[in-house]
Amino acid sequence: RRRASLAWVSGEAELRLLLGLLAEAAVPAPALFWVGLKRNASACTHEEQPLRGFSWEGVGGGTGPQEVPAALGRWVREPLQSCLTVRCAGLHLAADVGDGPSWGWKE
């Protein structure tokens, strides 16, 4: 209705920029942001792919770039193995990073 678009994270530079903006905004963690990462019902989970079969939703029902660097394949928890239902994933920011990663995808 507002002609908005969802974000794509197609590279490490974009991810660093997004994480920096969220840090500047002092977003409380843990937090989960949907950035347009979706797996359609006809798509299966693919463990060998960084996005695990998910794809970026694009403008007008299209899709964003599907080839992403392996470094973007960080998942908080592996997505469910499925080929039957639509699933969404978001950018999860961790509350206590310690020595672990501060972010990951979460179904």
From TrEMBL:
Residues 1-20 form the signal peptide. GO terms for cellular component: external side of plasma membrane; extracellular matrix. Keywords: Lectin, Membrane, Signal, Transmembrane, Transmembrane helix. GO terms for biological process: cell migration. One of its GO terms (molecular function) is extracellular matrix protein binding. It is found in: Membrane. It is a single-pass type I membrane protein. It comes from the Eukaryota. This is CLC14 protein.
